[in-house]
Design a protein that fits this description.
Radius of gyration: 25 Å
Strand content: 15-25%
Distance between the termini: 19 Å
Shape: globular
Oligomer: single chain
CATH topology of the largest domain: Nucleotidyltransferase, domain 5
Number of domains: 3
Largest sheet: 10 strands, mixed
Helix content: 25-40%
Length: about 450
């Protein structure tokens, strides 16, 4: 017995068998539903086609589609795509005609040099514009709230380069940060706290300081037509101009207090278990609101509310904010959600291989970073569309977890004229739900 997706119809893209059929299946067949979503729901080929010249037009769209699907295919670099793209199924799916290279004693193998050459045809501004258009579409579809709470952070892409003068990378530099010397680049990210959507991502030389990037990141979010309600950042982004700009734009901010002076150190140390107003946030975490503090070096016109946090087994620290209405426990709990951006960065590094910079030129590596961030948003959009905005258990799963249940599902591939038909045998429940919505 078969599911309502009957096998008799050759016009269906997917066929689902509930009984064993002894089929000789191919792996990673689940990439086709994802590609179909990008082609049909987002009209991605038509959008990408306008990037290239007349000769490159269709080829450029196909190759960019491959790069956007690279993390879902499990390839951690462009070179790792070689074995993936040798499959006839993937070649037909992406409409690729690979140039062959013959080596002595070996068969002709597809070359990935054309993918490297693709980066010379692109510019970061083009990809940024396409990524912003996708974010605006998500906002119109209700997948992205109009009022966002932005969390900002940075990560260093450290490169194992012994001599900077002999490095093949452009704009590579070295810098000492908190007593450690780093060589590489910096990536700045801004995410929406509610949906985990990547609102802005930018590759910069390592000598760029955090204080100069807070306002540009938030301005980039505002240009998407979103209202920035609040901003969460750490003390690395402290600067007087940043605080004054946030005040002028009526944006609430939550950050950790720098204990740079003896006055601030004494203020935090003065809070103990018998301090008045001490409240329990959760087991092992207590919050006490103290006298508002002033930041003469950064913000002279306003005193900020200050909440001292004591965690069991840790040194006390404090959160400051310009929010006059918030509750003490809520403000601290809200700031503690800043670790969400660290989880997103970790996922970009581990699952999406953000640090595998492919080329020597800075702009080409910037294209790689933007494409990786866009692929993250496309996968999140794909899950929201199929499983709904309320399916938090699915939306919170990482790419490596969902890849086994969606992408790495075997199926028999049948070619009907120009169409590709997949026959699945006892697919996982998530794949069954996915196919029922795509058909």
């Amino acid at each position: 017995m078969e599911t309502p997706m009957k096998r008799s119809s050759t016009h269906r893209r997917y066929v689902c068998h509930t009984q064993p059929q002894s089929l000789d299946a191919t792996g990673q067949a689940g990439i086709k539903p994802f590609v179909d979503y990008l082609k049909q729901q987002l009209h991605l080929p038509w959008i990408l086609k306008g990037l290239g010249q007349k000769v490159w037009g269709y080829k450029l769209a196909s190759l960019l589609l491959v790069l956007l699907c690279r993390p879902q295919l499990g390839a951690n670099s462009i070179a790792a795509l070689r074995e993936k793209l040798m499959s006839r199924f993937l070649g037909r799916l992406f409409y690729l005609r690979w140039e062959s290279k013959a080596t002595p004693g070996k068969r002709h193998q597809p070359s990935v040099d054309i993918l490297y050459d693709l980066f010379e045809k692109l510019s970061p501004q083009q990809i940024q514009r396409l990524m912003n258009n996708h974010l605006k579409r998500m906002r119109r579809e209700g997948k992205l709230p109009k009022h966002v709470d932005v969390v900002v952070d940075s990560v260093i892409l450290e490169l194992s380069v012994k001599h900077l003068s002999k490095s093949r990378f452009e704009h590579i530099g070295g810098r000492t940060i908190r007593g450690k010397y780093y060589k590489g680049f910096k990536v700045y990210v801004a995410i929406d706290l509610a949906s985990k959507v990547l609102l802005s991502i930018e590759l910069c030389p390592i000598w760029v300081t955090d204080t100069t990037k807070l306002v540009p990141l938030i301005e980039a979010v505002r240009k998407l037509g979103l209202h920035v309600r609040s901003a969460i950042f750490d003390r690395g982004f402290w600067k007087g101009d940043n605080f004054r700009w946030l005040q002028r734009k009526h944006i609430l901010f939550y950050t950790v207090l720098k204990q740079s002076t003896q006055e601030y150190q004494d203020l935090v140390a003065s809070v103990h278990s018998r301090s008045p107003g001490r409240r329990r946030l959760r087991d092992g975490v207590w919050v006490t609101e103290v006298t508002p503090v002033s930041l003469p070096t950064y913000l002279k016109t306003k005193r900020l509310r200050c909440f001292v946090v004591r965690m069991r087994g840790q040194k006390p620290w404090a959160v400051i904010t310009n929010d006059e209405q918030t509750d003490a426990c809520w403000a601290v709990d809200f700031y503690l959600q800043r670790n969400l951006v660290e989880k997103v960065i970790q996922e970009l590094l581990e699952d999406y291989s953000l640090a595998k910079l492919p080329r020597s030129k800075f702009d080409q590596n910037a294209c790689w970073v933007l494409l990786t961030g866009w692929s993250y948003n496309l996968w999140l959009d794909f899950r929201m569309h199929l499983f709904g905005l309320e399916a938090l258990d699915i939306l919170r799963k990482k790419l490596t977890t969902l890849r086994r249940q969606i992408i790495d599902v075997p199926a028999v591939v049948r070619y009907v004229r120009k169409a590709i038909v997949l026959e699945f045998e006892n697919p996982p429940p998530i794949m069954q739900q996915l196919l029922s919505q795509l058909e």
